[in-house]
Each structure stands twice: as C-alpha cells, then as structure tokens.
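re: the backbone from monday

yeah here it is again, tokenized this time
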C-alpha cells in the first residue's frame, strides 16, 4: 500500500480543470509541498503541468482511485456532474474514489444543487465541501484567493491544510453544504453589477469626449472607484478582451443569482439589468470575450483599440 495515502498529514491531492483558476491552484499545491495528480480535457495541459512536478492522469477514474482529496475547478454544475459521474460513456472520478475521501467543489452553482450533491456523495461514503472560489487567475497562482466553504466537520478534518495551501482566506460558513454557494452567489451579484456599471460609466465618458486614460486615473483615485472598475476598465483601455473571465460567465452567474432570488420572490432590479446587459453582449457576438466587453453594447462610442505591433 502507498504509505503516503495512509498518512493524514500528507494526503494525495488531485485537481481537475487546469483553466485560469485551476492551473494556479495546482501550482499553489505544488509550492506547498504536494505533488498533485491533475486531469484536464486538454491532455497537453495536464502533461505540461506534470513536467514541473506532479502526475498527469489519463482519466478521471485514474485520478479518483489515486487521491484522498479531489479538487474540482470547472465552470458549472453540469461539468461538475461529468467530473464525478461521467458522461454515460466514460466514468467520472466518484466510482473510483475510496470511502472517506473528499470532493472539493469550487464552481459557482445553485446552492440547492450543492446541498443535493452532498447527500448524493454521502451515500457513496465520499465527503464533500461546498467551496466556491474568488480572486482571479493571479491570486489563484499566488495562493492568495478566497474560498467560501461549507461542509461537515469530517470534511474539514479530511481537508487538513490543503485549503490553506490554495487560498489566503478560507471562510468556514456552515456545517453543511449550501452556505458557501449562497455567499458566492451574492459575491457574483456584486461582481456582475460592478462590471456592468463600470462599463456604463466608461461608456458615458467616451460618449462625452472625456479622455479615457484621464477618466480612469481620476476614478481610480476617487470615491467612485471599485475593484472591478480598476481591474476591468484597464482591459478596455488596453483594447484587450482576452478572456480571463468571459461575458458568458456572468450570463450564467447572474442567471443563478436571479434564480435563487426568484425562488423566494425577492426583487433584484440591478442584478436583472446587469444580466440583460451581459445577455445583450453575448448575443452580439462577444460571449467568449473578457467580461469587460459588455462595454461594447453601448451605441455611439468608439472603445480604445489595442496598440498595433511594430
């Protein structure tokens, strides 16, 4: 038997999804002394990571069998279902995970779905942490992101120091799944509205003939600033819509926000408007561009262009 797997202090960790956030989280795990097993649908991404330390798994079943903790960093609930339970032809990791192992779910999902998943995995003897994340790719890579977690004491005990290896802030929000996803939903409400209103403000400045760089400088040193204005409007000034977080992410996330509120008949007028703005940007052809591309829905403005390479 692999001695490492029997040592609770050094669990074998697997990570699924080497995208903008997952790649940084895997690097943070490696920096903390783990040798992560990784899986990505892009085989070359997993192999590139493993060349610097760790193991690239060819299948999710292989990763599940070898790991005490599986961290899932995929886009949504549907992809998480596929990670765990497969797609009908290829098995997921749940079938091979051992009783007492832990699944850490880092996606933004409907809290009720997360509650149901905890119960579903418990029937297989698998522990579960509802653990959505925030902070962006740079903070994920430096281990400075935030995790909003909820789960049983046994799940936290199994996690040990693994969460702290990936995040600067690990909030424990409840002793069962759901609370972490609820807090993440509220965070996404604010993030989406802030991006939308930042784009609206910059668009008005452009329409009124204000120098965009000067506007950015003033706002980022004034009371009207927000983290999202400072971060996303820098993308607009650079004319760079390379997706760190795409327009369609906020079509999804603000949709989840509205679904949660609708269930309790709670009005969210600003969230509804922001959702419509991202929907408009998506259908206008900007779905896979950076979410700051929501500024492109405003008529009669010319957004800054990327500098031409000499």
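seq for it, each position gets an aa:
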């Amino acid at each position: 038997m692999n001695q490492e797997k029997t040592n609770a202090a050094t669990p074998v960790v697997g990570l699924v999804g080497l995208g903008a956030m997952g790649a940084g989280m895997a690097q943070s795990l490696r920096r903390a002394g783990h040798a992560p097993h990784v899986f990505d649908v892009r085989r070359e991404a997993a192999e590139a990571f493993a060349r610097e330390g760790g193991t690239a798994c060819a299948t999710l079943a292989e990763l599940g069998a070898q790991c005490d903790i599986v961290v899932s960093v995929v886009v949504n609930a549907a992809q998480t279902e596929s990670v765990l339970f497969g797609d009908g032809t290829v098995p997921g990791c749940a079938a091979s995970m051992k009783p007492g192992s832990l699944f850490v779910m880092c996606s933004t999902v409907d809290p009720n779905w997360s509650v149901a998943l905890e119960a579903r995995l418990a029937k297989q003897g698998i522990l579960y942490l509802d653990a959505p994340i925030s902070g962006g790719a740079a903070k994920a890579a430096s281990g400075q992101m935030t995790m909003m977690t909820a789960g049983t004491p046994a799940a936290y005990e199994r996690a040990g120091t693994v969460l702290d290896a990936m995040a600067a802030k690990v909030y424990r929000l409840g002793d069962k799944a759901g609370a972490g996803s609820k807090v993440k939903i509220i965070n996404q409400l604010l993030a989406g509205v802030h991006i939308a209103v930042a784009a609206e403000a910059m668009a008005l400045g452009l329409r009124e003939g204000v120098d965009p760089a000067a506007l950015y400088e003033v706002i980022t040193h004034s009371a009207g600033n927000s983290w999202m204005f400072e971060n996303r409007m820098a993308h607009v000034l650079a004319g760079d819509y390379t997706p760190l977080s795409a327009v369609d992410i906020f079509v999804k996330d603000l949709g989840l926000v509205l679904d949660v509120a609708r269930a309790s008949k709670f009005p969210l007028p600003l969230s509804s408007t922001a959702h419509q703005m991202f929907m408009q940007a998506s259908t206008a052809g900007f779905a896979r561009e950076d979410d700051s591309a929501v500024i492109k829905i405003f008529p009669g403005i010319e957004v800054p262009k990327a500098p031409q390479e000499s």
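The longest strand covers residues 145-151. The radius of gyration is 21 Å.
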